[in-house]
Amino acid sequence: MAYDLIDLNYSSAPKDRCYFFDSNILLPILGLPAKPEMEVYLKYFKAVYENCLIKPELKIYTSTNQLSEVFNILMNVEFKKMYDDNQKKIHTDPKKFYKNIFRPSDQYLRPFKIYKEELLNFNDVFELIDLGAEEPLNMLLEFNVKKLDLNDLFILKCVQKTKAILVSNDNDFYGEDITHATFLRTTIKTFKDSVKVIAKK
């Protein structure tokens, strides 16, 4: 499968295919304040979700690794609020503060429950997908570490396994063997320029 790109600026109707949304899109979906440039992705997620409700055979995939990444980021945001508020009174090592003070507190439990409920709102169309043992570890870890981190790699492998459309707002997945949907104009321009070069040949 070659790299293919969907320009969401001009093709914003959901396809009748399964989807996988990058983690930095899931974060505002679950309640983290969204940056202005993310609003179009939230609108697109809603359209995909509604299409999946109409057509139950379609799913939005996620993975245990992605959920771990997303919830760690969300809870670290909550931790920073509490740590910054208390640091003037309690001079504690951040790791000890997280484990001994923050995690047993209601300031951990309350937002965790809220984020969990937000996730479960989409339970009827979300489906967990993981890599399993299809690929030996030594082969799995042969990847371009200058381009992808491990979280990106596991998303990429899950997308390739399911042949889902990956929606992301960065350039990390450009050129990989996937269908990539984005509003990001720099990525779109790079792709269109590469197509022109191939056409000239």
Query: Considering the protein shown, what is the CATH homologous superfamily?
Result: 5'-nuclease
The major pleated sheet works out as: 6 strands, parallel
What are the secondary-structure elements, in order, as H or E? EEHHEHHHEHHEEH
Report the span from N to C terminus.
Answer: 21 Å
Count, helices: 8
CATH structural fold name: Rossmann fold
**If you compute it from the alpha carbons, what radius of gyration comes out, rounded to the nearest whole angstrom?**
19 Å
What oligomerization state is this entry in? single chain
Give helix % range.
40-55%
What is the number of beta strands? Answer: 6
Question: What's the CATH architecture?
Answer: 3-Layer(aba) Sandwich
